[in-house]
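Postdoc handover notes: sequence design on the structure in folder B. Input tokens:
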């Protein structure tokens, strides 16, 4: 069972080096994957949240950074805790109730 919050979509990101909107990317949304474990107490389903991410598809046409450099710079960004909370809230509004273990 997989909950899909949003469809993947094409987007344009700001270049982490020069700040111009020049980076073509695909947004891969966060998903929940269910994993059921069985024990003497019965079966229990846990949900694992995958991290939403961007697949970078181009470098920067403004400052000339390559796709690889942009990817690396974006990956090194800090995790956005607020965003994770918002994702959970969105799920709860859709009627989701369960235990979420975030695996990063
Ligand atoms: Zn740039």
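Designed sequence:
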């Amino acid at each position: 069972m997989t909950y899909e919050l949003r469809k993947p979509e094409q987007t344009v990101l700001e270049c982490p080096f020069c700040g111009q909107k020049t980076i073509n990317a695909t947004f891969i949304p966060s998903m929940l994957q269910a994993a059921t474990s069985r024990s003497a107490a019965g079966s229990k389903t846990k949900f694992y949240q995958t991290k939403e991410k961007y697949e970078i598809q181009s470098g920067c046409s403004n400052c000339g950074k390559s796709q690889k450099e942009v990817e690396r710079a974006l990956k090194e960004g800090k995790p956005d805790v607020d965003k994770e909370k918002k994702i959970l809230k969105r799920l709860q509004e859709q009627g989701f109730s369960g235990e979420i273990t975030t695996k990063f």
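Context for whoever picks this up: The mean pLDDT is 85. Don't rerun without checking with the PI first.
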